[in-house]
Amino acid sequence: MLAAVCAGTLLLAPVEAAAQRPDSTRAGPTQRPPRRRAPAAQRADSLIRAPLSPRRAFLYSLALPGLGQAKLDRPNAGALFVAVEILGVTMARKSAADLAYARRFARDSIIESYDFNSLDEQGNPKPVYARNRYEGERVRARRTHYEDWVALVIFNHLLSGADAFVAAQLWDLPGQVSVRAMPRGATVSASVAW
User: Fold this and answer.
1) Average pLDDT, integer, range 60-65
2) Dihedral sign, CA of 75, 81, 85, 91?
3) What pLDDT sits at residue 154?
4) Tens of pLDDT along 112-155?
5) Strand partners, 190
6) Under a CB-based contact definition with an 8 Å cutoff, are residues 58 and 161 in contact?
7) Percent of the chain having pLDDT more than 70?
8) Which residues does 63 contact at the CB level (< 8 Å), separation at least 6?
9) Which of 99, 139, 148, 160 has the smallest C-beta neighbourhood within 10 Å, fewest atoms?
């Protein structure tokens, strides 16, 4: 209730916006002189600048996930993107090796037994081959696994870049997010100073 009253008071208070200009059609002493802006050096001291521009933060994290977050002093987010990158690359390499193995043995055959009732041209019994484990379905499944891990790596690069871009944009926003344990679960609260 108190917040609503304060917000209403701020909305009703007359404040001259910096973008407003005095009416140029009026003449005489009622016209106020234009406001002088502070020199650039004084304005720059009052602003907090991010160590990276949003574009550069995006490109850093797009190239190497977690790098833009590290430059923006966000070690936890950077560590998360690095961990996902390591997991994705490791599993993509393992899946690529499994796929190569399955392709190599897709045409392999193992003699399971001999059929003595039917003979070949030389009079030898015909071999009975065991079903190949690496026929079409298994090769397709391993190719799908490999493609999924590659997609995760690409998605991690894009998400890391987007996160760094947003973090650089919101660099000077003082905010706090906290998670507290409650008797019936967890509560997430966020506070932003205006």
Assistant:
1) 95
2) positive
3) 97
4) 777 778 888 787 888 777 666 667 788 888 999 999 999 999 99
5) 177
6) yes
7) 70
8) 157
9) 148
